[in-house]
Amino acid sequence: MSTSIHPMAIVDPSAKLGAGVTIGPFCTVGADVVLSDGVELISHVVVTGRTTIGPRTKIYPFASIGHPPQDLKYKGEPSTLTIGADCVIREGVTMNPGTEGGGMKTVVGDRGLFLANSHVGHDSVIGNNVIFSN
To answer: Phi, psi at residue 102, to the nearest 5°?
Structure first.
């Protein structure tokens, strides 16, 4: 299973890509990102920060994954966002990493469905088999 990167995508050379990853046009993948086996970024997806995305997760256009927390106390500390396996992240979803006050991490479980324009805020701990809607 080979990895496919569209020529119009920007992927930092130090990002870690698993087998069978698909990165569509106009996607951006940052330096500290880990995309596990079978992850699919459809198009216009931005994944940045210390973000790990679990196997077979599919992310739709205009999702913003791993940008700094929306918290005035955040000063650039190294925090993480971890997304589990088999999630579906629809158009316009935002997910932020943690802050110092929340243990420096945001965690999303397996098999979550995140509907259009929903938001997972910093320091969240989301279980398995959830549906988020805006």
So the answer is: -115, 20
Answer for the pair 79, 61: CB distance below 8 angstroms, yes or no.
no
Q: Are 30 and 36 in contact (CB under 8 A)?
A: no
Query: Minimal CA–CA distance to 29: which of 83, 3, 14?
Result: 14
pLDDT digits over 102-118, tens only? 999 999 999 999 999 99
- Tokens standing for residue 123: 């320091």
Paired with 35 in beta bridges are 17, 53
CA distance 23 to 46: 11
Query: Looking at the domain that runs over 4-132, which CATH code has it been given?
Result: 2.160.10.10
Contact 70, 95 (CB under 8 A): no
What are the tens digits of pLDDT across the range 18-45?
A: 999 999 999 999 999 999 999 999 999 9
Q: Where are the domains of the chain?
A: 4-132
H or E element, residue 17: strand 16-17
